[in-house]
Design goal:
The protein is an alpha/beta fold. Helix content is 27%, strand content 19%. Strands 5-2-6-1-7-8 form a six-stranded mixed β-sheet, sandwiched between helices. A two-stranded antiparallel ribbon has the order 3-4. Bound molecules: zinc ion.
Length: 218
């Protein structure tokens, strides 16, 4: 993944979140978690019953040699990286989720990239950032997570979707997986997360660059 030094706009803390319910699929398999049906007209939404606390996987993007987006000070020196911000947000989110009775699995709790030293973990014949993503996915599945939130920060003035982790244009985006049998639940969660992130940015006095909720089929 190309990483360019970019100056983040003042509103650089726009969140890009990938919200996926249920287990992500390792290498072409498709686990089938229990799916709640849509409520009948006029009926309340079904309430999930958990035999154990729900396990939420929180994935702070980047880490180690892959710092993600970068902020430079007036002297042109990098003084903040996306990997640092992702981790700080993830640690705060873990606190809040645990306070609400959830169990939390972090794909990283320090600076190290989970997949480093990189190898061809996904068996596609190449060694790149996708191998790190595969390591994260495999570990999340091994944990049996019920839900995954992957945290990234999109730069507002970016137009390069690879360098900025955004779909183009930067700003606040929430991705979800539309390919799974529980896609409707994924979309519902993504919409809930997205609205809360937008509201949080506004509470700090900023108007978010709302890029909407997007199918993650990049
Ligand atoms: Zn990122």
């Amino acid at each position: 993944m190309r990483q360019r030094v970019r100056r983040w706009a003042t509103l650089s803390l726009a969140l890009g979140l990938m919200a996926l319910v249920g287990r992500m699929a390792p290498k072409g398999t498709w686990p089938q978690p229990a799916v709640l049906g849509e409520p009948a007209p006029g009926q309340p939404a079904p309430t999930p019953s958990f035999a154990r606390p729900p396990l939420v996987a929180v994935d702070p993007g980047h880490g180690g040699s892959d710092v993600g987006g970068k902020h430079m000070n007036a002297q042109g020196v990098v003084d903040l990286t996306e990997s640092q911000v992702n981790l700080q947000v993830a640690l705060l989110l873990r606190e809040r989720l645990e306070a609400r009775g959830c169990d939390v699995y972090l794909t990283r709790s320090g600076d190290a990239m989970p997949g480093e030293p990189l190898q061809d973990w996904n068996g596609d014949g190449e060694v790149n950032v996708r191998d790190d993503l595969q390591v994260r996915i495999d570990r999340i599945n091994d944990q049996g997570a019920d839900l995954l939130l992957s945290l990234h920060q999109n730069a507002l003035d970016d137009v390069d979707p690879i360098a900025s982790c955004s779909s183009g244009g930067g700003g606040t985006t929430t991705y979800y997986c539309a390919d799974r049998p529980f896609a409707a639940q994924n979309l519902r969660l993504a919409n809930l997360v997205h609205q809360r992130v937008l509201a949080a940015i506004r509470r700090f006095g900023y108007e978010p660059a709302d890029q909407g909720v997007i199918d993650d089929h990049l």
